[in-house]
């Protein structure tokens, strides 16, 4: 999806935010407070030692809220510094303790002890300010007259002018009293830089600031530094980290103006740009313009790698901080999907630090290097419960079989031997934590011992079976000529589904066994589209059959969505849309070069041109129907294909069967002319 660079350029323009600031004349700090209060600033800074919280023996003044305001402290009209004004709001907390004699005897206390109840309250309020590399603490003395002392009520505020801070810095402010009666108040604020101030001419460090804009250059990003020809500045690109210093990429000293192009493959969310004039005490501008760029997030995941550290820990290596969630799964040989552990072990959070989209981003077998080539092993999953209870099950494609078990699976039949191997230390531990463990136990020795007699029986049975095979020879030859064909399409609308049904019915008249989801809706609903397609694809390819990808405008849009992570294509996709479900298994075959000889693609004349099929799927033959029906049918036949004359007869037979469905699709009843509009670039418009 293209990135709206013009919005980014607008946000990074010369004046994205205007802040008119009040000017303070003179270098002296000052304080003032609300009417009725009296306040005084200590002459010198104090040590920042908050101390422990102590109990209050009566009503006390405590800070309840902090407010800040940016002002300018100016020695001259054009020589100012940014300053943070802080207002501390105060309230009365606590209450007077009853005298001991009044508690004991229930009478009136000594009148002389009531004097404090009518006295004013005093407090020493500390303001602590930190902004790298500056740290200061000041002390404000505040007095509240007795008339304003109301328990639990605000009494006003005291204002301090002011803490000087650097442009663009992050400041932290704390407030508490001495002695400290409650938790410290805290406020963190990011100060604006020169681009956001209306006083650029009043702050010397802003005078020669290079102005930086980011715009588009095709798929790439273009950095435009709009400075004068004699201006010297430094440009620094780095990867920002949540903790610790940034990771540098490169830095150059340049003379303006400059236009620098960044390749789109180098963009990641934490890539930031720092630029500053080559002058003493110059201000440095930092921007991170790619944080919300979808392409930058995809680049980050493509470059991420999982590394195994110990038996039960791993590390996610990425250029940017990337919070992600990892889970253990297991995968049977043959490229089947990685299945979650059942029952599951604990999920581990990996924080190396961006959004974790709710889909699989990365899958790696971390133990492949340490274990060597695949072995004929069984994975045993051990789960631990309270009071040191534990249970074992063997992972199989059908689930996790408890050991021991009376079921008829392979792991159940060998359960006793597997448990003996586990107890004798012949199994390799792959994982171990407080909730469970995973073991790999060898299977080859049991296979040889247990099935030796079975193989002998099979040899004796072979003679009897050969006679049966001879009797069924003619039938098997006929069946062999019927090649399995799996037809996949996108359910764009009901008219297109009728057209697909006509094609599937016509192909069934030939020596082809056609599977299509239109004829398997009950199984599709029961199993789900992914499971249904996976079983059909595996059966078709195991029998040497062919998978046909029938492309339409809807199918092209779905493929583009998967290949580019773009916005979902328009149109409804129901629960029976096997084409959408099949992409997760079809795409790896094309990406890994396994599609040739197993897949063909097709589209209908006037609906979609062959060159509109995504380039990835044009690595296999693409046929336009019905104009290229002979070649299409030839690709579906086994190597011992019929003679060309016979193939043309079959193509004419299929074409005649398709003609009524094509006429109905492109010229629906009741329309005087062409009944269906075809988008430019997808087919003929005649």
TrEMBL record:
Any keyword Cell membrane? yes
How this chain sits in the membrane, per its record, is: Single-pass type I membrane protein
Q: What is this protein called?
A: Interleukin-17 receptor C
> Where does the record place it?
Cell membrane
Q: What is the lineage of its organism?
A: Eukaryota, Metazoa, Chordata, Craniata, Vertebrata
Q: Subunit structure of this entry? A: Homodimer; disulfide-linked. Heterodimer with IL17RA. Heterodimerization with IL17RA is independent of the cytoplasmic tail. Associates with non-glycosylated IL17RA constitutively. Binding of IL17A and IL17F induces association with glycosylated IL17RA. Forms complexes with 2:1 binding stoichiometry: two receptor chains for one interleukin molecule. IL17A homodimer preferentially drives the formation of IL17RA-IL17RC heterodimeric receptor complex, whereas IL17F homodimer forms predominantly complexes with IL17RC homodimer.
| InterPro entries, per the entry | IL-17_rcpt-like, IL-17_rcpt_C/E_N, SEFIR_dom
SEFIR domain: residues covered: 482-634
- Record the organism: Saimiri boliviensis boliviensis
Give one GO molecular function term.
Answer: interleukin-17 receptor activity
State a GO cellular component annotated for this protein: plasma membrane
Q: Where is this region: Disordered?
A: 663-686
């Amino acid at each position: 999806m293209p990135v709206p660079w013009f919005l980014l350029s607008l946000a990074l323009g010369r004046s994205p935010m205007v802040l008119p600031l009040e000017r303070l004349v003179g270098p002296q700090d000052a304080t003032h407070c609300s009417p009725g209060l009296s306040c005084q600033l200590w002459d010198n800074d104090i040590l920042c030692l908050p101390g422990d919280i102590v109990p209050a023996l009566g009503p006390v003044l405590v800070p309840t809220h902090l407010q800040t305001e940016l002002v300018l402290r100016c020695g001259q009209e054009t020589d100012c510094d940014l300053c943070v004004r802080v207002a501390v709001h105060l309230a009365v907390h606590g209450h007077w303790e009853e005298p001991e004699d009044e508690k004991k005897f229930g009478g009136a206390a000594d009148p002389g002890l009531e004097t404090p109840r009518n006295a004013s309250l005093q407090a020493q309020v500390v303001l602590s300010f930190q902004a790298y590399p500056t740290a200061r603490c000041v002390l404000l003395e505040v007095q509240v007259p007795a008339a304003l002392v109301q328990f639990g009520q605000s009494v006003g505020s005291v204002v301090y002018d002011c803490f000087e801070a650097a442009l663009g810095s992050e400041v932290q402010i704390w407030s508490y009293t001495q002695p400290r009666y409650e938790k410290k108040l805290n406020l963190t604020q990011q100060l604006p830089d020169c681009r956001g101030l209306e006083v650029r001419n009043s702050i010397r460090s802003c005078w020669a600031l290079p102005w930086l804009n980011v715009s588009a250059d095709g798929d790439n990003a273009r950095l435009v530094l709009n400075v004068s020809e004699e201006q010297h500045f430094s440009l620094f690109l780095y990867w920002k980290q949540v903790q610790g210093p940034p990771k540098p990429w490169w830095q150059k000293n340049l003379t303006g103006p400059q236009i620098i192009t960044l390749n789109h493959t180098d963009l990641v969310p934490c890539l930031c740009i720092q630029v500053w004039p080559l002058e003493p005490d110059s201000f440095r501008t930092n921007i991170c313009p790619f944080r919300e760029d979808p392409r930058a997030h995809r680049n980050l995941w493509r470059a991420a790698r999982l590394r195994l550290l110990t038996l039960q820990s791993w590390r996610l290596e990425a250029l940017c901080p990337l919070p992600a969630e990892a889970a253990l799964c297991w995968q049977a040989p043959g490229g089947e999907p990685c299945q979650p552990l059942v029952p599951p072990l604990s999920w581990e959070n990996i924080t190396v630090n961006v959004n974790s989209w709710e889909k699989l981003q990365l899958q790696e077998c971390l133990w492949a290097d340490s274990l060597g080539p695949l072995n004929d092993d069984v994975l045993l999953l051990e789960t631990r419960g309270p009071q040191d209870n534990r249970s074992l099950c063997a992972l199989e494609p059908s689930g996790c079989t408890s050991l021991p078990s009376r079921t008829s699976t392979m792991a159940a039949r060998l359960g006793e031997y597997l448990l003996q191997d586990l107890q004798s230390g012949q199994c390799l531990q792959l994982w171990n934590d407080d909730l469970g463990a995973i073991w790999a136990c060898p299977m080859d020795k049991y296979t040889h011992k247990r099935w030796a007699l079975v193989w002998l029986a099979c040899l004796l049975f072979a003679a009897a079976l050969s006679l049966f095979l001879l009797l069924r020879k003619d039938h098997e030859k006929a069946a062999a000529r019927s090649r399995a064909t799996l037809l996949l399409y996108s359910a764009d609308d009901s008219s297109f589904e009728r057209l697909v049904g006509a094609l599937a019915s016509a192909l069934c008249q030939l020596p082809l066994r056609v599977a299509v989801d239109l004829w398997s809706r009950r199984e599709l609903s029961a199993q789900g589209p992914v499971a249904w397609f996976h079983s059909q694809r595996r059966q078709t390819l195991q029998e040497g059959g062919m998978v046909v990808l029938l492309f339409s405008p809807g199918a092209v849009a779905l493929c583009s969505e998967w290949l580019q992570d773009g916005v979902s294509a328009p149109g409804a996709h129901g629960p029976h849309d096997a084409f959408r479900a099949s992409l997760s298994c079809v795409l790896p075959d094309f990406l890994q070069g396994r599609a040739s000889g197993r897949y063909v693609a097709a589209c209908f004349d006037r609906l979609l041109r062959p060159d509109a099929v995504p380039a990835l799927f044009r690595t296999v033959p693409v046929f336009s129907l019905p104009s290229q029906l002979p070649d299409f049918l030839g690709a579906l036949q086994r190597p011992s294909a019929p003679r060309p004359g016979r193939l043309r007869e079959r193509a004419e037979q299929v074409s005649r069967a398709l003609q009524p469905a094509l006429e109905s699709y492109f010229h629906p009843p009741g329309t005087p002319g062409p009944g269906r509009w075809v988008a430019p670039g997808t087919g003929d418009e005649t």
